[in-house]
Amino acid sequence: MFRRVLVATDLSSAAAHAVRAAAAAAKAAGAKLAVCHVMPNVLPTNMLFPQANNQAIVGDAELERKAGDAVEAHVDEVLGEGADVDVLIQKGDPQVELPRAAEDWGADLLVTGSHGRTGVERILLGSVAEKVVRLAPCSVLVVRSGGRSDVVLGATDLSDPSLPAIRAAAAMAQQRGAALHVMHAVDVEGMVRLEALGGPFGVQPPPRELVQAMHDSARAALDGAIARAGVEATPHLVEGSAAAAIVRTAEELQAGLVVIATHGRTGIARVLLGSVAEKVVRVAPCSVLAVRERAVRVA
Asked: How far is residue 22 from each of residues 26, 108, 132, 140, 223, measured CA to CA in Å?
């Protein structure tokens, strides 16, 4: 499914899980694997004594060499010696440099770890992964412990751009030997609030017949999306806002992986506009694969 897999590591135990997951994905797809480590950019600039800058450059190069050695040792420890892996060393902010490395190396999957914490810590750590998802030029797998490895949940908004995510979910389920579930959220309350903004009657519950018609239409569309994707899956039609419904369904199914499409925005729009995928990455109880439609290649 993917041809070039890039995994980020900070040499921690959480990163080791990401490296293993990336190696498994690369092996299953016959893809090239690279490991990227981002160093802090500590190179000083001395305006009064420019000759000191040359010494700093030499010292920085030595730090980069040592970082490369440390990454190679980390990969040998996690994957075993002799693994065919490229090592990339970047300098700067990981949220910026990881997407840049993915772009430069031509990755179509970027894998990163996330510490399995809860509450505020999980939200803050998730926000880092959220920014990587927002800026990356390719699909992003955020590896987080939790859930059952034999359940994969694909989420769809029933649009054509979400079909690659359903196929990617099917491929991941096959790779894991897992059951595939595909869901769609019907946000009745959201539609009521939207109608209230332009209507004279205020916020009122919609007629029961209308709600039933919405559910029937969405269920038929969900079955159609699964059929168009050419996969077999257990469908789930749930009510609520998309991100909250996806997280809730993942928790109920104890899913080990959530797969969701993220639209391929560019420039300022990609930076400023949030997405359901980013919100799910922030608070999901398990790993999340955010599939960017323009990057994924489905065999």
From this structure: 6, 12, 16, 11, 31
145-299 has which fold?
Rossmann fold (3.40.50)
**Whole-angstrom distance, CA of residue 167 vs CA of residue 273:** 25
**Strands (E) located in 240-299:** 255-262, 287-292
- The more confidently predicted of residues 23 and 199 is 23
Chain segment 108-163, per-residue pLDDT in tens: 999 998 754 444 444 444 567 888 888 899 999 999 888 888 999 999 988 887 88
Domain regions of the chain by residue span: 1-113, 145-299
| CATH level 2 (architecture), domain 1-113 | 3-Layer(aba) Sandwich (3.40)
State the DSSP H helix or E strand holding residue 249, giving kind and residue range, or none if neither: helix 242-253
Q: Per-residue pLDDT for 31 more than 50?
A: yes
Contact (CB, 8 A) for 287 and 148:
no
pTM of the predicted protein model? 0.83
Which residue's entry shows tokens 């803050």? 124
The 8-class DSSP code of residue 278 comes to H
Q: Average pLDDT of 16-35? A: 94
What would the DSSP string read from start to end of 25-87?
A: HHHHHT-EEEEEEEE-------SS-HHHHHHHHHHHHHHHHHHHHHHHHHHHHHH-TT--EEE
Crossing angle (nearest 10°) for helices 242-253 and 276-283? 40
Domains 1-113 and 145-299 alike in fold: yes
